[in-house]
Amino acid sequence: MVALFSLLLLAPTAQAENADLRVQSRENPFSCVGAYEALTGGGRTLDEMRDELRALLARLESDSREKKAGPDVDRAAELCVAGRLKARLGHQDASDLLEAAIRAAPHEPGYELFAGMYWAGMRGARRPLLERAERHFYAGLAKLKDLRARGQALSFHDVVEDWLHKQLLVLYQEDGAQLLPWKAYRPWPGGRWAPGLAFSSQLRFAQDTRDFFYNSEMRQFTGEAAFASSDLRAGAAFDARDAWDLVRAPHRFEVQNRLRLRHAWLGALDALHSYMFSPQSQIQNFYDPQSALSDVTVFLLGLGYERGFSLYPLFDLRLAGSFSRGTRRGTVEFEPQELEHFNQLEAHPSFSRFFGSDKVTLDLSYVLIDLADAPSGVVDDRLRRRDIRAARLEYALYSPLLLPSFSDGDFGLRRTATRGWYFYVGAVDDREAWGVHTLVRRDLFAGTRYNGPGRFEITVQGTYYTSNTRGYNPNRNPPLLYSEVGQDYSSARLSLLPQIRLVDQETLPGVPQSALGFGVDMLNLVFPLHADRALDGGRDFENLRGGMELWMKVFGTGFGGPAVLLTLGYDFQYFYRLQKSLHLAQVALRLGWGRL
Q: 338-396: per-residue pLDDT in tens?
């Protein structure tokens, strides 16, 4: 990374060293980048960085007593370095020094770039503080325009402009294709206050044992077998052939469309549409599960909202939620053509805060699927409702670590800055009620993701799944809440996801080179491995699963700059107790995206 920044700094310098000596002076804002890298690289510890920051702040304080207030390009570079050092150490007032650097060099767009990168890359809960970041990026574009109009732009300003355009591409990448010109690629410098209108579409196709919500297929198959053999249905145990037939990988298709209105005052307001179709995927009759399968269709229309807030000095907050009205067909036993109507409410707040150089993020989720009561059948079984609650706590370790290193043929430990080592825990409580019965599913998970300094990344996660069906008898005095016999189940999954970056978006600070109007910004190979093992209940559906996926992101720089994400995957899954193997595949094409 140090070498990359040095090349970017020296490239414009070499072109213009005979044309204008200011390119090699402190007027070049990339001197901030070089000085910052010198103070944080080379195996420095956090304590050494703090010492450098204290010395720099003392020097700035001494200079401020000797000099009058006003523009000072030398002082701007040092203020920028101090601000970036504070950001690296997790000081949430780092923006104050970055703003001071802008005031010290009011005509230089490079310092607007670095301030925007702080809000876009380091602050925010799960998403950048977009409105704070775009204020600086558009200010940088406006200053560039003024410099060029006065004939005062230097060669390094081409690099500043390239970085500004890349930062805005990334800032709006989830929005999709811009339908208005102000926020499209090479945006209008005054476009901050102009509305953005973007269209996003996600197409996914799979032949898979899992649904698109990544629920545990082992729990699903075990639950279906337990329910079919319970006293509520057939009352007879499944044999191996019955279980073998129950394992299925239906085709699954989903499209999610979104029209997003974005404004600096408003945030993002979305009009939502989604359609899901899975033929021959739902058991029609649990008295005879192999008799027939029904097609499942789900249709949704709704509105959503999302925005990030800086509540300094407490935390950063992201608010996201939606309300949809939907229909679904094919999920009611014995009635595959019955059309169900429902309201769906979602809320996904996130909170984040730095503790030293590390960052803690808390994600909360609540989903309510409120179905209209069944119009016929047993009165006590007509209620339909589903409540899903989830929480996830993540600790991101950004401190330099002692890592194995080979240098000059010798093996040893060297202090190295990583891209983050993440540790997380979480839980999901999913309760689906039909009449006096409630199916309770719970997930507990913990894992770690290591983003190495090179091309390698790995995630390891363990998940504990449980399932239980509870009944309610209102005719008892007092009313009785009980567990259905034979419906208890628990299992564990170990997941391993190594990843190799073939094209690394974090080492491409500028707009990627384009061919036929598209520039590749990311290309990763992922090798997901999963092992499911039963702990309590049926063991028939234990399995091993492994495969390979290709993740690619391109920017349509010849078409207004939309981000397109392509995912291709193949998995082989083996249910070893049933001696049944399946070949699975998935394809996803996303023009912009939301929650992945």
A: 999 999 999 999 999 999 999 999 999 999 999 987 666 565 566 789 999 999 999 99
Give 594's contacts (C-beta < 8 A, 6+ positions apart).
174, 200, 202, 256, 258
Architecture of domain 2-171: Alpha Horseshoe (1.25)
> In angstroms, what is the C-alpha Rg of the chain?
28
In angstroms, the CA 488 to CA 162 distance is 58
What is the DSSP track for 152-189? ---THHHHHHHHHHHHHHHHTTTT-EESSGGGSSS--T
Predicted local distance difference test score (pLDDT) of residue 43:
83
Is the pTM higher than 0.85?
Answer: yes
Contacts of 27 (CB under 8 A, 6+ apart): 73, 105, 108, 154
Distances (CA, A) of 216 to 54, 213, 266, 279: 52, 9, 38, 19
Check: CB of residue 400 under 8 Å from CB of residue 413.
no
| Whole-angstrom distance, CA of residue 218 vs CA of residue 540 | 9
Q: Which two tokens stand for residue 229?
A: 């053999």
- Measure the CA–CA gap between 383 and 333, rounded to whole angstroms: 14
Pairing of strands 456-473, 480-483: antiparallel
Residues linked to residue 464 through DSSP beta bridges, in sequence order = 444, 492
Whether the bond between 71 and the residue before it is cis, its omega within 30 degrees of 0, is no
Q: Rounded to whole angstroms, how far apart are CA atoms 572 and 220? A: 19
Measured from the Cβ of residue 371, the count of other Cβ atoms closer than 10 Å reads 21
Separation between Cα atoms, residue 228 and residue 235, nearest integer Å:
7
Highest mean pLDDT among 224-228, 406-410, 529-533: 529-533
For residue 245, which amino acid is it? D
Cα separation, 555 vs 561, whole angstroms? 5
Hey, where are the domains in the chain?
2-171, 197-591
Of 42-56, 207-221, 357-371, 460-474, the least confident: 460-474
Unique residue bearing structure tokens 């325009």: 145
